[in-house]
Amino acid sequence: MRSPIFGALAFANWVVANAIPSPPTLVVKRADTWGGSVSLGPSKSTIVKAVTTIIPGPAPPTQNGVLFLWPGMSNGTGDLIQATLESWPSNSWCGAATGQWCVRASVFGWFGQRDGSASPVSGSDQVRIEYALQSDQNTWLQTVTNAVTGALLSTYSSASGPYMRGYGTGTECNDNCSGTIAAQSYINTVITLASADTTFGGTIAVAGGATYSGLTSSDGGKVWSIASINIPAMSKSSQTTSTTTSRVTTTTTTSRVTTTSTRTTTRASTTSGSGSCSAAQYAQCGGTDFTGCTTCALPYTCKYQNAWYSQCL
Ligand SMILES: *[C@@H]1O[C@H](CO)[C@@H](O)[C@H](O)[C@H]1NC(C)=O
Ligand SMILES: *[C@@H]1O[C@H](CO)[C@@H](O)[C@H](O)[C@H]1NC(C)=O
């Protein structure tokens, strides 16, 4: 048995574990659940480009908590490149109607979550998500388009480095979310490595009832393709639970507007303060409705934990 960083469950659990260090005070156990997943890695080489097309199925007509569908790419310690299809209690913040998702290019890292602008997509839409390492060998450009019409849906660029070794899908259900109601498909997934790695295909891992077909390689093991990946709708048997620890929150009605400002707050906190305030180690420095100091005392940085809570660590 391999125990790769990016084995499907390990991948999901890594994302969670990395995001949630142990806070020191006043905590509750919070159960997040994960749907099926397929993942590859770590590669002996590095990923230079990854393209997939997701057909998400309809978003739930009503939503408890928040649901995210994403193809993710990381190296286990650095940024997680993850264009996300999102279902919130209301998706009107991106102009979506009931049953539609909001999609946006996004990156998750020590700074929290940073996003491009979002667009609505329907369940039968083919949403093409491309991650491409730019010629500076450091910048990743995410480009999200409608695969049929070519319309640009979202884009985001981040200096996430050249050492991406794992790629996988995530169906992530946060804050007691009510789960997916439809299966999702990923088609025409193509991962291009910097150099041949004939062992990459052997690292594929599935979890939660997900299946794949048509795993092939070309160019001596430099280019890896998966014709289709199918993730079942969430059900008791297809979900895994990761119990994470987070602060008590009484905020149950989270409007997208406040969450956006949370993310902005987290982002702002990563710059060195002009001396106006400085939050201590372990202090809260961001989160929905948080209005306190968003700059951490050196050497701590404000780390995103979830939409409701960021902490100086
Ligand atoms: C992951 O990528 C970051 C950014 O390039 C780099 O600093 C870090 O060393 C990498 N980690 C591994 C395990 O490759
Ligand atoms: C989770 O949501 C369900 C309804 O979807 C509700 O019955 C239950 O009380 C919620 N649990 C918590 C801990 O909020």
The Rg value, from CA coordinates, equals: 19 Å
Instruction: Calculate the terminal CA-CA distance, rounded to whole Å.
Output: 34 Å
Bound small molecules, deduplicated: 2-acetamido-2-deoxy-beta-D-glucopyranose
Strand content: 35-45%
Q: Which residues sit in consecutive blocks of at least 5 with pLDDT less than 50?
A: 1-10, 12-30, 243-275
Helix count equals: 2
Mean pLDDT: 80
N-to-C SSE string, H for helix and E for strand: HEEEEEEEEEEEEEEEEEEEHEEE
| Fraction in helix | under 10%
Shape: globular
**Major sheet size, sense and barrel closure:** 12 strands, antiparallel
What's the number of extended β-strand segments?
Answer: 22
Give the helix/strand class.
Answer: mainly beta
Region (Disordered): 237-273
Keywords: Signal
Protein name: CBM1 domain-containing protein
Domain CBM1: 277-313
Question: How does this structure look, described?
Answer:
There is one protein chain. This protein is mainly β and 313 residues long. 8% of the residues lie in helices and 43% in strands. Strands 1, 2, 4, 5, 6, 7, 8, 9, 10, 14, 16 and 19 form a twelve-stranded antiparallel sheet that branches. A seven-stranded antiparallel sheet has the order 13-12-11-3-15-18-17, with no helix packed on it. It is globular. The chain starts with 7 loop residues before the first helix and ends with a strand. Mean pLDDT is 80; it is low at 1-10, 12-30 and 243-275. Residues 75-78, 161, 163 line the site of one 2-acetamido-2-deoxy-beta-D-glucopyranose (NAG).
